[in-house]
Amino acid sequence: MVTLLGTMFFLAVMVASIWTIVETVRPRMGRILFMLRYGPVIAPALPQQHRVTVRGRSVPLRMQVPARLRATA
User: Fewer CB near the terminus (10 Å): N or C of the chain?
Assistant: First the structure.
């Protein structure tokens, strides 16, 4: 009886583990299949970050942060 309960317990743990893996992989399956079929896609370097523009001028973005929230260098 103890052997049967132990076996049932470990089977339940195994089923829960497999279920978790399947539920994790399912949303990503399209991307996984694409990668398996075509391999990694080499893209050009990302463009530089855009600066905030005011009336067509390019200006750097400056934030006002309280002194207690600033990171110490």
Answer: C
